[in-house]
Amino acid sequence: MNLWLAASLFILSGVGAFFAASRLAYFGDAVKEKTKATSAFIGMLIGIAISLPELTSSATSIVIGAPDLAVGNLLGSNLFNILALAIFDFVYRKHQIMTHATVESKLYGWLVILLTLIIMVGLIFSIPAHLFNIGYTSIGVILVYAVAAKWINEHTEYKGRKIKRKPKRFKEYTYKQAIGYFITAAVLIMIMGSILTIAAEDIATTTGLGSSFVGAFLVAISTSLPDAVSVGTALKMRNYNLAISSLLGSNAFNLIILAITDIFFINGRLLEQAAPSNLITSSVSILFVLIVIYSLSKRRLQPSWSYMLPSLLIVGLYFVTTYFVFAMR
User: Fold this and answer.
1) Which of 140, 144, 108 is nearest to 122 (CA)?
2) What is the reported pTM?
3) What is the torsional sign of CA 203, 205, 207, 212?
4) What is the pLDDT of residues 187-236, one digit of tens each?
5) How many Å apart are CA 26 and CA 22, to the nearest integer?
6) DSSP states of 259-297 as a string?
7) Whole-angstrom distance, CA of residue 294 vs CA of residue 304
8) Is residue 152 within 8 Å of residue 111, measured between CB atoms?
9) What does the pLDDT look like over 254-279, one tens digit per residue?
10) Sign of the C-alpha dihedral, residues 31, 33, 34, 35?
11) Are residues 93 and 304 in contact, defined by beta-carbon separation less than 8 angstroms?
């Protein structure tokens, strides 16, 4: 595939992912209304759905024998997701969206940090496989996610700032229609994300950039576009808690994808094949989530300049991290 064709496919699939992600957030809100589920729970569900491109990309990376690309893609996606949240926080600064978040969203943030720390242990130490070549870290990530997500959903309720919402906004859709459209949008995201990833990998090969850098930034950004678009759509609908929890839910599920990818990687342990630069990406992603949790802890409205400092810090650190990962390629 020549560079111009790859670039064209990249742009077209990006537009397709944009449309599908906007529909996903819209019908996610419809499902919430029809089922009476919490915003944070639906946010986590949307987070899983919009992580499908990462799943496809990671599977493709394993098939073509590029494990470092798979690891870089998933850790880089988590980094970009928080960058997107920071940018949206700046755009919607008059609404101070972080003050609308729930305790549930903060707990998902801590869960992401814990899962990332487990992954970092696998990146740093040579831990023997446990069963069928599956690493202890991957088993730990899956078990911790399953237990923690269940506990969070059972022990939390909405305690964020209240905003006026129009009741029964989706009267024209039945419960089955809302579910059907939600699933259709999720499938479209997976298809568009797959095309977008293949095009991005071809561009990377043609230009000669390192797989760690390409995975952490070019592929990660491309597969994370649905996450960002979905959050933007949720914010337009003034469902601020849904926007925040869907991104944190997506980050948590990305780490589950990393663990699942390790299960299907038969040539050793996946994390042992990853470049050292992935430690930088994962460390900074933890720092980003800590900054977000700090912002979520604020309940009172603040002066605009004071409120925006954490998000501006995230934006600045993202570009510094990009430089260091590029230098280590």
Assistant:
1) 140
2) 0.78
3) positive
4) 887 788 778 777 777 777 777 666 566 666 777 777 777 777 778 877 88
5) 6
6) HHHHHH--SS-GGGGS-THHHHHHHHHHHHHHHHHHHHT
7) 16
8) yes
9) 899 888 888 888 777 788 888 888 89
10) positive
11) yes
